[in-house]
From TrEMBL:
<feature type="domain" description="Aromatic amino acid beta-eliminating lyase/threonine aldolase">
    <location>
        <begin position="46"/>
        <end position="423"/>
    </location>
</feature>
<dbReference type="InterPro" id="IPR015421">
    <property type="entry name" value="PyrdxlP-dep_Trfase_major"/>
</dbReference>
<keyword id="KW-0456">Lyase</keyword>
<dbReference type="InterPro" id="IPR015422">
    <property type="entry name" value="PyrdxlP-dep_Trfase_small"/>
</dbReference>
<comment type="similarity">
    <text>Belongs to the beta-eliminating lyase family.</text>
</comment>
<dbReference type="Pfam" id="PF01212">
    <property type="entry name" value="Beta_elim_lyase"/>
</dbReference>
<dbReference type="InterPro" id="IPR001597">
    <property type="entry name" value="ArAA_b-elim_lyase/Thr_aldolase"/>
</dbReference>
<dbReference type="GO" id="GO:0016830">
    <property type="term" value="F:carbon-carbon lyase activity"/>
</dbReference>
<protein>
    <submittedName>
        <fullName>Aromatic amino acid beta-eliminating lyase/threonine aldolase</fullName>
    </submittedName>
</protein>
<dbReference type="GO" id="GO:0009072">
    <property type="term" value="P:aromatic amino acid metabolic process"/>
</dbReference>
<dbReference type="InterPro" id="IPR011166">
    <property type="entry name" value="Beta-eliminating_lyase"/>
</dbReference>
<keyword id="KW-0663">Pyridoxal phosphate</keyword>
<feature type="modified residue" description="N6-(pyridoxal phosphate)lysine">
    <location>
        <position position="257"/>
    </location>
</feature>
<dbReference type="InterPro" id="IPR015424">
    <property type="entry name" value="PyrdxlP-dep_Trfase"/>
</dbReference>
<dbReference type="InterPro" id="IPR018176">
    <property type="entry name" value="Tryptophanase_CS"/>
</dbReference>
Length: 458
Protein backbone atom coordinates (compact mmCIF):
# COMPACT_ATOMS: atom_id res chain seq x y z
CA UNK A 1 0.00 0.00 0.00
CA UNK A 2 1.37 3.38 -0.97
CA UNK A 3 1.05 5.72 2.04
CA UNK A 4 -0.86 8.75 0.83
CA UNK A 5 0.95 11.67 2.50
CA UNK A 6 -0.97 14.96 2.59
CA UNK A 7 0.13 17.51 -0.07
CA UNK A 8 -0.76 20.44 2.23
CA UNK A 9 0.03 21.58 5.73
CA UNK A 10 -2.39 22.76 8.37
CA UNK A 11 -2.69 26.50 9.03
CA UNK A 12 -5.97 26.69 10.95
CA UNK A 13 -7.39 24.02 13.25
CA UNK A 14 -10.92 23.32 14.41
CA UNK A 15 -11.10 21.49 17.76
CA UNK A 16 -13.27 18.38 17.86
CA UNK A 17 -15.51 17.49 20.81
CA UNK A 18 -15.02 14.07 22.36
CA UNK A 19 -18.25 12.70 23.85
CA UNK A 20 -18.81 9.66 26.06
CA UNK A 21 -20.67 6.55 24.97
CA UNK A 22 -23.54 7.43 27.38
CA UNK A 23 -23.86 10.89 25.81
CA UNK A 24 -23.94 9.39 22.34
CA UNK A 25 -26.57 6.81 23.31
CA UNK A 26 -28.79 9.61 24.59
CA UNK A 27 -28.17 11.75 21.50
CA UNK A 28 -29.04 9.04 19.01
CA UNK A 29 -32.18 8.05 20.91
CA UNK A 30 -33.37 11.67 20.96
CA UNK A 31 -32.57 11.86 17.23
CA UNK A 32 -35.00 9.00 16.50
CA UNK A 33 -31.97 6.94 15.48
CA UNK A 34 -31.60 9.24 12.50
CA UNK A 35 -28.02 10.43 12.05
CA UNK A 36 -29.16 13.57 10.17
CA UNK A 37 -30.76 14.78 13.42
CA UNK A 38 -27.57 14.74 15.51
CA UNK A 39 -26.04 18.17 16.22
CA UNK A 40 -22.77 18.18 14.27
CA UNK A 41 -20.67 19.42 17.18
CA UNK A 42 -21.35 16.13 18.99
CA UNK A 43 -19.65 14.19 16.21
CA UNK A 44 -15.98 13.30 16.33
CA UNK A 45 -15.41 12.34 12.69
CA UNK A 46 -18.11 13.35 10.25
CA UNK A 47 -18.23 11.15 7.17
CA UNK A 48 -21.89 11.88 6.45
CA UNK A 49 -20.95 13.54 3.21
CA UNK A 50 -18.15 14.94 1.09
CA UNK A 51 -20.60 17.63 -0.03
CA UNK A 52 -20.02 21.18 1.15
CA UNK A 53 -17.56 19.92 3.74
CA UNK A 54 -14.26 20.67 1.98
CA UNK A 55 -11.55 22.73 3.64
CA UNK A 56 -10.91 25.74 1.43
CA UNK A 57 -7.34 26.73 0.64
CA UNK A 58 -5.64 29.96 1.72
CA UNK A 59 -6.05 31.05 -1.90
CA UNK A 60 -9.81 30.51 -1.77
CA UNK A 61 -10.13 32.34 1.56
CA UNK A 62 -8.14 35.21 0.10
CA UNK A 63 -10.56 35.20 -2.85
CA UNK A 64 -13.50 35.71 -0.49
CA UNK A 65 -12.10 39.12 0.41
CA UNK A 66 -12.29 40.07 -3.25
CA UNK A 67 -16.02 39.38 -3.35
CA UNK A 68 -17.84 41.94 -5.47
CA UNK A 69 -21.37 41.99 -4.10
CA UNK A 70 -22.92 44.01 -6.92
CA UNK A 71 -26.43 42.84 -7.70
CA UNK A 72 -25.68 42.56 -11.41
CA UNK A 73 -22.45 41.87 -13.29
CA UNK A 74 -20.19 41.08 -10.31
CA UNK A 75 -16.60 40.65 -11.43
CA UNK A 76 -16.51 37.32 -9.61
CA UNK A 77 -19.29 36.07 -11.87
CA UNK A 78 -17.14 36.77 -14.93
CA UNK A 79 -14.20 34.94 -13.35
CA UNK A 80 -16.50 32.03 -12.50
CA UNK A 81 -18.04 31.98 -16.00
CA UNK A 82 -14.64 32.09 -17.68
CA UNK A 83 -13.33 29.26 -15.49
CA UNK A 84 -16.35 27.05 -16.10
CA UNK A 85 -16.17 27.71 -19.85
CA UNK A 86 -12.47 26.89 -19.90
CA UNK A 87 -12.82 23.54 -18.11
CA UNK A 88 -16.29 22.42 -19.16
CA UNK A 89 -16.46 24.14 -22.54
CA UNK A 90 -20.20 24.90 -22.47
CA UNK A 91 -21.43 28.23 -23.79
CA UNK A 92 -24.01 29.22 -21.17
CA UNK A 93 -23.14 29.17 -17.49
CA UNK A 94 -25.95 29.56 -14.97
CA UNK A 95 -25.02 29.76 -11.28
CA UNK A 96 -27.24 28.10 -8.66
CA UNK A 97 -26.80 27.79 -4.93
CA UNK A 98 -26.42 24.02 -5.10
CA UNK A 99 -26.72 21.01 -7.37
CA UNK A 100 -30.34 20.08 -6.83
CA UNK A 101 -31.52 23.54 -7.94
CA UNK A 102 -29.61 23.03 -11.17
CA UNK A 103 -31.44 19.70 -11.53
CA UNK A 104 -34.79 21.25 -10.71
CA UNK A 105 -34.34 24.12 -13.15
CA UNK A 106 -33.29 21.77 -15.91
CA UNK A 107 -36.08 19.24 -15.36
CA UNK A 108 -38.76 21.91 -14.86
CA UNK A 109 -37.94 23.14 -18.33
CA UNK A 110 -37.68 19.89 -20.24
CA UNK A 111 -39.67 17.12 -18.52
CA UNK A 112 -43.34 16.36 -18.90
CA UNK A 113 -45.49 13.67 -17.38
CA UNK A 114 -44.63 10.19 -18.69
CA UNK A 115 -41.11 11.10 -19.85
CA UNK A 116 -38.16 8.85 -19.13
CA UNK A 117 -34.65 9.85 -18.05
CA UNK A 118 -31.83 7.30 -18.34
CA UNK A 119 -28.70 7.67 -16.20
CA UNK A 120 -26.00 5.25 -15.04
CA UNK A 121 -27.55 5.49 -11.56
CA UNK A 122 -29.58 8.53 -10.53
CA UNK A 123 -28.47 10.03 -7.24
CA UNK A 124 -31.39 10.41 -4.81
CA UNK A 125 -31.92 14.16 -5.38
CA UNK A 126 -31.82 13.62 -9.14
CA UNK A 127 -34.28 10.74 -8.97
CA UNK A 128 -36.57 12.76 -6.66
CA UNK A 129 -36.47 15.74 -9.01
CA UNK A 130 -37.26 13.55 -12.04
CA UNK A 131 -40.12 11.82 -10.24
CA UNK A 132 -41.44 15.12 -8.90
CA UNK A 133 -42.04 16.04 -12.54
CA UNK A 134 -43.99 12.78 -12.99
CA UNK A 135 -41.25 11.34 -15.18
CA UNK A 136 -39.45 8.04 -14.72
CA UNK A 137 -35.80 7.77 -13.68
CA UNK A 138 -34.17 4.69 -15.25
CA UNK A 139 -30.80 3.28 -14.17
CA UNK A 140 -28.75 1.74 -16.97
CA UNK A 141 -25.43 1.05 -15.25
CA UNK A 142 -23.49 -2.05 -16.40
CA UNK A 143 -24.28 -5.21 -14.39
CA UNK A 144 -20.76 -5.19 -12.94
CA UNK A 145 -21.62 -1.84 -11.34
CA UNK A 146 -24.23 -3.53 -9.15
CA UNK A 147 -21.89 -6.26 -7.95
CA UNK A 148 -19.87 -5.04 -4.94
CA UNK A 149 -17.22 -7.73 -5.58
CA UNK A 150 -16.59 -7.15 -9.27
CA UNK A 151 -13.24 -5.47 -9.92
CA UNK A 152 -14.18 -3.81 -13.25
CA UNK A 153 -12.09 -0.59 -13.47
CA UNK A 154 -15.04 1.54 -14.65
CA UNK A 155 -18.04 0.29 -12.73
CA UNK A 156 -19.86 3.57 -13.32
CA UNK A 157 -20.17 2.84 -17.06
CA UNK A 158 -23.54 3.00 -18.75
CA UNK A 159 -24.71 -0.26 -20.33
CA UNK A 160 -25.21 0.84 -23.93
CA UNK A 161 -27.65 -2.02 -24.66
CA UNK A 162 -29.80 -1.04 -21.67
CA UNK A 163 -29.73 2.58 -22.82
CA UNK A 164 -30.73 1.64 -26.38
CA UNK A 165 -33.43 -0.69 -25.06
CA UNK A 166 -34.92 2.11 -22.93
CA UNK A 167 -34.98 4.46 -25.93
CA UNK A 168 -36.60 1.74 -28.09
CA UNK A 169 -39.16 0.87 -25.45
CA UNK A 170 -40.37 4.38 -24.68
CA UNK A 171 -39.58 6.08 -27.99
CA UNK A 172 -37.06 8.90 -28.32
CA UNK A 173 -39.75 11.56 -27.99
CA UNK A 174 -40.30 10.48 -24.41
CA UNK A 175 -36.58 10.66 -23.58
CA UNK A 176 -35.83 14.40 -23.45
CA UNK A 177 -32.35 13.92 -21.95
CA UNK A 178 -29.69 11.30 -21.20
CA UNK A 179 -27.69 11.81 -18.00
CA UNK A 180 -24.38 10.35 -16.87
CA UNK A 181 -23.21 10.77 -13.27
CA UNK A 182 -19.45 11.09 -12.80
CA UNK A 183 -18.37 9.51 -10.60
CA UNK A 184 -21.36 7.26 -10.03
CA UNK A 185 -22.20 8.13 -6.43
CA UNK A 186 -25.03 5.67 -5.76
CA UNK A 187 -23.01 2.81 -7.22
CA UNK A 188 -20.01 3.39 -4.96
CA UNK A 189 -18.30 6.50 -6.34
CA UNK A 190 -17.21 4.49 -9.37
CA UNK A 191 -15.76 6.14 -12.49
CA UNK A 192 -17.02 6.17 -16.07
CA UNK A 193 -14.45 5.59 -18.82
CA UNK A 194 -13.84 8.00 -21.68
CA UNK A 195 -14.64 5.17 -24.08
CA UNK A 196 -18.06 4.76 -22.46
CA UNK A 197 -18.65 8.51 -22.48
CA UNK A 198 -17.98 8.49 -26.23
CA UNK A 199 -20.42 5.63 -26.71
CA UNK A 200 -23.17 7.29 -24.69
CA UNK A 201 -22.59 10.47 -26.65
CA UNK A 202 -22.88 8.58 -29.95
CA UNK A 203 -26.19 7.01 -28.89
CA UNK A 204 -27.51 10.41 -27.84
CA UNK A 205 -26.46 12.00 -31.14
CA UNK A 206 -27.93 9.15 -33.19
CA UNK A 207 -31.35 9.70 -31.60
CA UNK A 208 -31.05 13.49 -31.36
CA UNK A 209 -31.34 13.40 -27.56
CA UNK A 210 -29.38 15.96 -25.50
CA UNK A 211 -26.69 14.42 -23.29
CA UNK A 212 -25.79 16.01 -19.92
CA UNK A 213 -23.33 15.12 -17.19
CA UNK A 214 -24.11 15.20 -13.51
CA UNK A 215 -20.60 16.51 -13.00
CA UNK A 216 -20.25 16.82 -9.19
CA UNK A 217 -17.11 14.69 -9.00
CA UNK A 218 -15.75 15.21 -12.50
CA UNK A 219 -12.11 15.73 -11.44
CA UNK A 220 -12.03 12.50 -9.46
CA UNK A 221 -13.46 10.72 -12.52
CA UNK A 222 -10.74 12.27 -14.68
CA UNK A 223 -8.05 11.07 -12.27
CA UNK A 224 -9.33 7.49 -12.60
CA UNK A 225 -9.29 7.81 -16.39
CA UNK A 226 -5.68 8.96 -16.22
CA UNK A 227 -4.81 6.10 -13.90
CA UNK A 228 -6.73 3.31 -15.62
CA UNK A 229 -7.52 4.03 -19.26
CA UNK A 230 -5.04 3.50 -22.08
CA UNK A 231 -3.92 6.66 -23.81
CA UNK A 232 -4.53 9.07 -20.92
CA UNK A 233 -1.42 8.60 -18.78
CA UNK A 234 0.36 11.57 -20.34
CA UNK A 235 -2.58 13.93 -20.43
CA UNK A 236 -3.28 16.54 -17.77
CA UNK A 237 -6.47 16.38 -15.72
CA UNK A 238 -7.61 19.57 -17.45
CA UNK A 239 -7.14 17.99 -20.88
CA UNK A 240 -9.06 14.91 -19.81
CA UNK A 241 -11.88 17.06 -18.40
CA UNK A 242 -12.05 19.13 -21.57
CA UNK A 243 -12.26 16.02 -23.72
CA UNK A 244 -14.89 14.46 -21.48
CA UNK A 245 -17.19 17.47 -21.57
CA UNK A 246 -16.66 17.95 -25.31
CA UNK A 247 -18.87 14.88 -25.86
CA UNK A 248 -21.86 16.39 -24.01
CA UNK A 249 -24.39 19.19 -24.45
CA UNK A 250 -24.31 20.40 -20.88
CA UNK A 251 -24.06 19.52 -17.22
CA UNK A 252 -25.49 20.04 -13.79
CA UNK A 253 -22.92 20.59 -11.09
CA UNK A 254 -22.88 20.70 -7.33
CA UNK A 255 -19.71 22.71 -6.66
CA UNK A 256 -19.97 21.44 -3.08
CA UNK A 257 -17.98 18.42 -4.23
CA UNK A 258 -15.22 18.98 -6.79
CA UNK A 259 -15.69 22.76 -6.64
CA UNK A 260 -13.99 22.54 -3.22
CA UNK A 261 -16.45 24.98 -1.67
CA UNK A 262 -19.04 24.90 1.07
CA UNK A 263 -21.91 26.12 -1.09
CA UNK A 264 -22.61 26.57 -4.80
CA UNK A 265 -23.43 24.91 -8.06
CA UNK A 266 -24.29 25.60 -11.67
CA UNK A 267 -25.93 24.49 -14.86
CA UNK A 268 -23.99 24.81 -18.08
CA UNK A 269 -25.19 24.08 -21.59
CA UNK A 270 -24.71 24.90 -25.23
CA UNK A 271 -28.38 25.34 -26.20
CA UNK A 272 -29.32 29.03 -26.11
CA UNK A 273 -33.06 28.47 -25.99
CA UNK A 274 -32.90 26.14 -23.02
CA UNK A 275 -30.49 28.52 -21.31
CA UNK A 276 -32.79 31.47 -21.83
CA UNK A 277 -35.85 29.68 -20.45
CA UNK A 278 -33.88 28.38 -17.49
CA UNK A 279 -32.36 31.79 -16.78
CA UNK A 280 -35.82 33.32 -16.66
CA UNK A 281 -36.86 30.76 -14.11
CA UNK A 282 -33.60 31.24 -12.19
CA UNK A 283 -34.51 34.90 -11.81
CA UNK A 284 -37.88 33.85 -10.44
CA UNK A 285 -36.56 31.47 -7.79
CA UNK A 286 -32.82 32.02 -7.15
CA UNK A 287 -31.82 35.51 -8.20
CA UNK A 288 -30.26 37.42 -11.05
CA UNK A 289 -28.30 35.45 -13.63
CA UNK A 290 -24.92 36.72 -12.45
CA UNK A 291 -25.29 35.36 -8.92
CA UNK A 292 -28.03 32.66 -8.85
CA UNK A 293 -28.52 32.54 -5.08
CA UNK A 294 -24.83 32.95 -4.26
CA UNK A 295 -22.75 35.84 -2.97
CA UNK A 296 -20.05 37.26 -5.23
CA UNK A 297 -17.44 35.89 -2.83
CA UNK A 298 -18.90 32.37 -3.21
CA UNK A 299 -18.50 32.58 -6.98
CA UNK A 300 -14.87 33.59 -6.50
CA UNK A 301 -14.25 30.62 -4.20
CA UNK A 302 -15.80 28.27 -6.79
CA UNK A 303 -13.68 29.70 -9.61
CA UNK A 304 -10.54 29.17 -7.55
CA UNK A 305 -11.68 25.75 -6.28
CA UNK A 306 -12.33 24.48 -9.80
CA UNK A 307 -8.74 25.30 -10.74
CA UNK A 308 -7.27 23.73 -7.58
CA UNK A 309 -9.20 20.50 -7.97
CA UNK A 310 -7.38 19.83 -11.26
CA UNK A 311 -4.03 19.63 -9.44
CA UNK A 312 -2.75 16.12 -9.84
CA UNK A 313 -0.90 16.06 -6.52
CA UNK A 314 -4.11 16.94 -4.76
CA UNK A 315 -6.08 14.29 -6.67
CA UNK A 316 -3.46 11.59 -6.11
CA UNK A 317 -3.70 12.21 -2.36
CA UNK A 318 -7.46 12.41 -2.46
CA UNK A 319 -8.01 9.14 -4.31
CA UNK A 320 -5.32 7.33 -2.34
CA UNK A 321 -6.58 8.48 1.04
CA UNK A 322 -9.97 6.97 0.22
CA UNK A 323 -8.28 3.81 -1.05
CA UNK A 324 -6.13 3.67 2.11
CA UNK A 325 -9.24 3.53 4.31
CA UNK A 326 -10.79 0.89 2.06
CA UNK A 327 -7.68 -1.28 2.08
CA UNK A 328 -7.41 -1.21 5.87
CA UNK A 329 -10.98 -2.54 6.07
CA UNK A 330 -10.58 -5.06 3.27
CA UNK A 331 -7.45 -6.53 4.85
CA UNK A 332 -9.49 -7.44 7.93
CA UNK A 333 -12.27 -9.01 5.90
CA UNK A 334 -14.82 -6.19 6.22
CA UNK A 335 -17.04 -6.43 3.11
CA UNK A 336 -16.71 -3.25 1.05
CA UNK A 337 -17.52 -2.22 -2.50
CA UNK A 338 -14.47 -2.87 -4.64
CA UNK A 339 -12.56 -1.31 -6.23
CA UNK A 340 -12.73 1.58 -3.74
CA UNK A 341 -14.41 4.63 -5.30
CA UNK A 342 -13.26 8.23 -5.40
CA UNK A 343 -14.95 10.09 -2.58
CA UNK A 344 -16.05 7.38 -0.21
CA UNK A 345 -15.67 3.86 1.02
CA UNK A 346 -18.91 1.93 0.86
CA UNK A 347 -19.40 -0.88 3.35
CA UNK A 348 -21.59 -3.70 2.05
CA UNK A 349 -24.09 -3.87 4.90
CA UNK A 350 -25.94 -6.83 3.40
CA UNK A 351 -22.86 -9.01 3.79
CA UNK A 352 -21.71 -7.28 6.99
CA UNK A 353 -25.05 -7.99 8.72
CA UNK A 354 -26.65 -10.94 6.88
CA UNK A 355 -28.89 -11.64 9.90
CA UNK A 356 -30.73 -8.28 9.47
CA UNK A 357 -33.18 -8.29 6.52
CA UNK A 358 -33.54 -5.19 4.27
CA UNK A 359 -36.93 -4.40 5.89
CA UNK A 360 -35.04 -3.85 9.14
CA UNK A 361 -32.41 -1.56 7.60
CA UNK A 362 -29.06 -3.33 8.12
CA UNK A 363 -27.19 -0.26 6.88
CA UNK A 364 -28.85 1.93 9.46
CA UNK A 365 -27.96 -0.57 12.20
CA UNK A 366 -24.29 -0.14 11.28
CA UNK A 367 -24.59 3.65 11.02
CA UNK A 368 -26.08 3.84 14.53
CA UNK A 369 -23.50 1.49 16.03
CA UNK A 370 -20.61 3.40 14.49
CA UNK A 371 -21.86 6.61 16.06
CA UNK A 372 -22.57 5.10 19.48
CA UNK A 373 -19.26 3.28 19.62
CA UNK A 374 -16.87 5.79 18.08
CA UNK A 375 -18.61 9.13 17.46
CA UNK A 376 -18.31 8.61 13.70
CA UNK A 377 -21.14 9.72 11.41
CA UNK A 378 -21.71 7.77 8.20
CA UNK A 379 -24.80 7.48 6.01
CA UNK A 380 -27.03 4.64 4.93
CA UNK A 381 -27.47 4.25 1.18
CA UNK A 382 -29.82 1.32 1.15
CA UNK A 383 -33.45 0.60 1.93
CA UNK A 384 -33.95 3.64 4.15
CA UNK A 385 -32.75 6.03 1.44
CA UNK A 386 -33.61 4.21 -1.78
CA UNK A 387 -36.41 1.66 -1.30
CA UNK A 388 -39.58 1.96 -3.34
CA UNK A 389 -43.12 1.05 -2.40
CA UNK A 390 -45.16 -1.46 -4.35
CA UNK A 391 -48.15 0.66 -5.48
CA UNK A 392 -50.54 -2.32 -5.08
CA UNK A 393 -49.45 -3.92 -1.82
CA UNK A 394 -47.65 -0.95 -0.21
CA UNK A 395 -44.81 -3.37 0.57
CA UNK A 396 -41.23 -2.11 0.50
CA UNK A 397 -39.14 -3.00 -2.56
CA UNK A 398 -35.52 -2.85 -1.39
CA UNK A 399 -32.75 -1.58 -3.71
CA UNK A 400 -30.18 -4.08 -4.99
CA UNK A 401 -27.49 -2.84 -2.59
CA UNK A 402 -27.55 -2.10 1.13
CA UNK A 403 -24.56 0.18 1.63
CA UNK A 404 -23.11 2.38 4.34
CA UNK A 405 -21.12 5.24 2.94
CA UNK A 406 -18.06 6.66 4.63
CA UNK A 407 -17.70 9.84 2.59
CA UNK A 408 -14.43 11.64 3.05
CA UNK A 409 -14.50 15.45 3.13
CA UNK A 410 -11.80 16.97 0.94
CA UNK A 411 -8.60 18.15 2.68
CA UNK A 412 -10.23 17.87 6.13
CA UNK A 413 -9.14 14.69 7.91
CA UNK A 414 -5.67 13.21 8.27
CA UNK A 415 -4.70 9.63 7.58
CA UNK A 416 -4.61 9.04 11.34
CA UNK A 417 -8.30 9.90 11.43
CA UNK A 418 -8.81 7.29 8.71
CA UNK A 419 -7.00 4.73 10.83
CA UNK A 420 -9.27 5.50 13.79
CA UNK A 421 -12.31 4.98 11.55
CA UNK A 422 -10.95 1.68 10.24
CA UNK A 423 -10.26 0.38 13.74
CA UNK A 424 -13.78 1.24 14.93
CA UNK A 425 -15.38 -0.58 11.99
CA UNK A 426 -13.14 -3.61 12.37
CA UNK A 427 -14.10 -3.80 16.06
CA UNK A 428 -17.81 -3.71 15.16
CA UNK A 429 -17.26 -6.34 12.48
CA UNK A 430 -15.84 -8.74 15.06
CA UNK A 431 -19.01 -8.35 17.17
CA UNK A 432 -21.47 -7.98 14.29
CA UNK A 433 -23.94 -10.69 15.45
CA UNK A 434 -24.94 -8.43 18.35
CA UNK A 435 -26.36 -5.70 16.09
CA UNK A 436 -30.15 -5.47 15.69
CA UNK A 437 -32.41 -3.91 13.06
CA UNK A 438 -34.86 -0.99 13.11
CA UNK A 439 -38.45 -0.15 12.21
CA UNK A 440 -39.75 3.22 10.97
CA UNK A 441 -41.98 5.31 13.26
CA UNK A 442 -42.34 8.34 10.97
CA UNK A 443 -41.51 8.98 7.32
CA UNK A 444 -42.07 11.83 4.82
CA UNK A 445 -43.28 11.27 1.24
CA UNK A 446 -40.02 12.39 -0.44
CA UNK A 447 -36.40 11.76 0.62
CA UNK A 448 -37.60 10.12 3.83
CA UNK A 449 -34.13 9.36 5.19
CA UNK A 450 -33.55 13.01 6.08
CA UNK A 451 -36.39 13.21 8.61
CA UNK A 452 -37.45 9.63 9.39
CA UNK A 453 -37.73 8.53 13.02
CA UNK A 454 -36.77 4.95 13.79
CA UNK A 455 -37.07 2.49 16.65
CA UNK A 456 -34.68 -0.35 17.47
CA UNK A 457 -36.15 -3.84 17.26
CA UNK A 458 -35.92 -5.38 20.72
C1 LIG B 1 -23.82 13.51 -1.17
F1 LIG B 1 -27.49 12.24 2.07
N1 LIG B 1 -24.72 14.61 -3.03
O1 LIG B 1 -23.39 12.64 -1.96
P1 LIG B 1 -26.53 19.26 -3.89
N2 LIG B 1 -25.79 14.72 -7.85
C2 LIG B 1 -24.95 13.91 -7.17
C3 LIG B 1 -24.76 14.14 -5.82
O2 LIG B 1 -23.91 13.37 -5.17
C4 LIG B 1 -25.47 15.22 -5.18
C5 LIG B 1 -26.31 16.04 -5.96
C6 LIG B 1 -26.46 15.75 -7.29
C7 LIG B 1 -24.61 14.60 -1.71
C8 LIG B 1 -25.33 15.52 -0.77
C9 LIG B 1 -26.52 14.79 -0.29
O3 LIG B 1 -29.77 12.47 0.71
C10 LIG B 1 -28.71 13.24 0.39
O4 LIG B 1 -25.52 20.36 -4.07
C11 LIG B 1 -24.24 12.82 -7.86
O5 LIG B 1 -26.39 18.53 -2.60
O6 LIG B 1 -27.91 19.76 -4.10
C12 LIG B 1 -25.35 15.44 -3.81
O7 LIG B 1 -26.20 18.24 -5.06
C13 LIG B 1 -27.06 17.19 -5.37
C14 LIG B 1 -26.45 13.86 0.73
C15 LIG B 1 -27.70 14.93 -0.95
C16 LIG B 1 -27.54 13.11 1.09
C17 LIG B 1 -28.81 14.17 -0.61
O8 LIG B 1 -23.58 13.49 0.04
Amino acid sequence: MQFPAEPFRIKVVEPLKITSREEREKLIKEAGYNIFMIPADSIYIDLLTDSGTSAMSDNQWAGLMLGDESYAGSKNYYHFEETVRHIFGFKNVIPTHQGRVAENLLFSNILKEGDVVPNNIHFDTTRANVEYHKAQAIDCVIDEGMDPQNLHPFKGNMDIDKLEAAIQKYGKDRVPIILLTVTNNSGGGQPVSMQNIREVSAVAKKHGIPFFFDACRFAENCYFIKEREDGYQDKTILEIAQEMFSYADGCTMSAKKDGLVNIGGFLAMNDDQWAQRITNMLILIEGFKTYGGLAGRDLEAIARGLKEVLDENYLRFRINQTRFLGEMLDKEGVPIVKPVGGHAVYVDARRFLPHIPPEQFPGQALVVELFVRAGIRSVEIGSLMMAKKDPQTGKMIPPKLELVRLAIPRRVYTNMHMQYVAEAIIEIYREREKLKGFTIEYEADFLRHFTARLKPIA
